Amino acid sequence: MRFIAPLFSLLSLAASQDFLDAADTGAPTFDMIWDADDRHNPANVTAPLAATVMLVRKLSTAIRGDMLVLRPNTLLQGRPNLCGDVQFQDEPAPGSCSGVLVAQDMIATAAHCANDMRRAAAYFFVFGFSTAEQEAQGREALNEVPLRDVYEAKEVFGWELGNSHSQDFRRSDWALIRFTRPVEGREPVKVREEGPATSAEHFYVIGHPNGLPAKSTRRREGLDEVSMVLWNNNNAYFKARLDTFGGNSGSPVFNAETDELEGLLVRGDSDWMWEYGSGQRCMREARCPQDRGQRGIDRGVLRCAGEDVTRSTELAGHMAFDRAQKAESGEKIPVDVRAPNSFPISVPDWSHIQPRAVSLFFSSPTPPTPGSYLHSVGVNLEATHEYSLTELSLSLQGPGSNAIELGPVPRSPLTHFGASRPDVHTTFANLPRGLWQLRVRDTAGQDVGQIVNASLTFFFIEGDANPAVSMEMELKTELPVPIPDYDPAGVELKFSPPAEEAEKLKDADGNDLAVFSWDLDVTIDHDRADEDVARVYLSSPDSRRVYSFGAFNQGEMMEFGESARQQLFFYGADANGDWTVRVVDSKENITGTITKATLKVKAVAMPWRNAVEEEAAGEEAAAEGEAGAEEETVEGGEAPAAGDAEGAGEAEGSQEEAGEVPEEGSPASTSAESPESPPSTPESEAGEANEGQN
After folding, report:
1. Nearest to 577 by CA among 545, 537, 540
2. Among 218, 228, 255, 357, which residue's beta carbon has the most beta carbons within 10 A?
3. How many C-beta atoms surround the C-beta of residue 676 within 10 A?
């Protein structure tokens, strides 16, 4: 078993890092080759390949007829001193990052690639940039892709990068980006949304290393001889042996046995090493474990500790919220701006001396029925700008102090901007009636904008039809309880629904209610009250989702779940069952005691969850029934249908031609643009990736 000896050293190296990994910063790094290079051009268009997307900067493209022309520069042209045996050096390399389709109108990628609209708007999202799809579609040039496979960002639905949203040091790195129109002819991948740690041992990556056409690392025969997992302790990411490079950031990492999405590739080691010989040198791919301890060209000394993969479970709460939004039925009430505002309104140019903004005021509408409550708020804005609409930024404040930054205005037509975002919902849901303020400001000098029209749309849900249940869980562990010194097992506290109230966490059909919001309070008395000396892990029933927190302010009550990011992590999870709080001491020879702990959960019925589970069960049964037929087809020499994606697209198109147009607000028409709308040309958007410098 040729991997046993080097793997033992690698596992020891991975285990030697701080067992809480609290010092990690979350900054993106890149990767290399492990033993033999498994990267190859896929031979067939599989569903995972069809769902993989490349992020390419608009300024490096052109539109010719109905095709997007990508920059033809090859890998060798970008790195002219490559060694002669470097793979794929004669292929075009226009890409910046990778991603994967997780909903019909949304992809997942790494947050360090695009975590706001300003960055997302600078990209085209290109499906089908692979030799397999080129052959299947009969395209003459690899670097020319049909515009039907090119999409633009409408909103960044959610994201997390390192320590960005809280002081939890989790090193999570992901972003969900919604498109201006649903993706046609391609299906979202199946995403693992439950479980604190992957149980898989074998993986493959599909993505765009170095910006190249899509490469897969799936072994052509069988599985690796030993597990590919190198470290599986942190609940936000795991480490594995994967052959990846810069450009693979955001690449989907699949379970090699089930094709289920396990996570997104986000960090690793150096890509390149110098090779010396005959008085000359050239660049070659870095390889592990043989290059361990050597200095790479681009990212310092190789540790060969494995590539970091953000777990797919990090997306689960946001994806559940997205499904809930699409399944909800309610009433929309538009509200116009209050006097004395009259349109058009000029937006003052940005100034570092005296920042200025235009404020528009709105009054809350009367709820449509006594039992309905405010669910979300959307902004409808028509504006112009001398340079780029994305230089205009919006913020919305509700009655009282509740406020949120909505960020840059999208270039696409703006309809209910922000209404589907989870952070908007958590900020404004259930607010009382009062005065609302929309602030519009310019963010770069030398050019000005103008507001042509503006309104807010208030989304109400019938509360009586879906009442929320608030419950304080019963602590089953007797307090006070000491925390073991510097022991990763820590101490566990068990919480359960009070026996006399457990039935309240089920709906009329006996289904468990789902988490809507939660609150955890813990008090720890510690020898060093001024240091961060512990971590707190909260697990939902059956450990389906686990979130870790940094523990601060020792000796005082610590409140967890205050940020929208933390709240949404458990959104849609089962509320009924045993919850676990684990507290781990992270400093040697310092002891502490838990003196108080409370957990409150707010839950509601989410009927869409039952439909999703039934659909998944049906798909699994159908897949098992078709498995034998597919094996016979492959053995008979007939390749999988590379045109399946196109066929599905034609079927959807025929429905529209027949006049079956979805109603506004339905899941099939969530975009602000028509599905037929082509992406904007790079010429019309020139310079938008460099806003603030014009």
Report:
1. 540
2. 228
3. 10
Measure the CA–CA gap between 289 and 542, rounded to whole angstroms.
37
| Alpha carbon distance 324, 603 (integer Å) | 14
Residue at 196 is within a domain:
yes
Condensed to tens digits (0 to 9), the pLDDT of residues 209-258 reads 999 999 999 987 788 778 899 999 877 999 999 999 999 999 999 999 99
Whether the per-residue pLDDT at 421 is higher than 50: the answer is yes
The verdict on residue 679 lying in a domain is: no
Planar angle of CA 332, 338, 339, nearest 5 degrees: 155
Q: Nearest-CA neighbor of 665 among 377, 221, 332, 238?
A: 332
User: 495 and 386 in one domain?
Assistant: no
**Are 154 and 43 found together in one domain?**
yes
Query: Does residue 133 sit in the same domain as residue 277?
Result: yes
Q: How many domains does the chain have?
A: 3
Domain end point (choices 438, 462, 486)? 462
400-425 as b/e: b if 16+ CB within 10 A:
eeeebebbbbbbbbbbbbbbbbbbbb
Tell me whether residue 326 is in a domain. no
For the stretch 577-635, pLDDT in tens is 999 999 998 878 877 899 999 999 988 887 777 666 666 666 666 656 655 554 444 34
C-beta of residue 244 within 8 angstroms of C-beta of residue 31:
yes
The domain of 282 spans 4-321
**Tens-place pLDDT, residues 366-396:** 888 877 778 888 888 888 888 888 888 899 9
Task: Mark whether 9 and 137 lie in a shared domain.
Answer: yes
User: Tokens at residue 142, please?
Assistant: 């690899």
- Is the pTM of the predicted complex or chain greater than 0.85? no
Q: Please report where in the chains the tokens 């496979």 appear, as a residue.
A: 149
* DSSP H or E segment with residue 626: helix 607-635
Scan for tokens 């599989």, then name that residue. 46
- Tell me the C-alpha to C-alpha distance, in Å, between residue 206 and each of 54, 227, 569: 11, 19, 26
User: Which CATH number goes with the domain that contains 213?
Assistant: 2.40.10.120
Task: Tokens for 410, please give them.
Answer: 């999208």
Q: Is there a single domain that holds both residue 599 and residue 492?
A: yes
CA 613 to each of CA 184, 507, 607, 608: distance values in angstroms, whole numbers, following the listed order: 24, 16, 10, 9
Nearest CA to 568 out of 638, 515, 646 is that of 515
Residue where the block lists tokens 């919220």: 321
| Same structural domain, 59 and 16 | yes
Query: What distance in Å separates the CA atoms of residue 570 and residue 580, rounded to the nearest whole number?
Result: 13
DSSP 560-603: E--SHHHHHHTTTSB-SS-EEEEEEE-STT--EEEEEEEEEEEE
Report yes or no on 139 lying in a domain: yes
Dist. CA 249–CA 230, nearest whole Å:
19
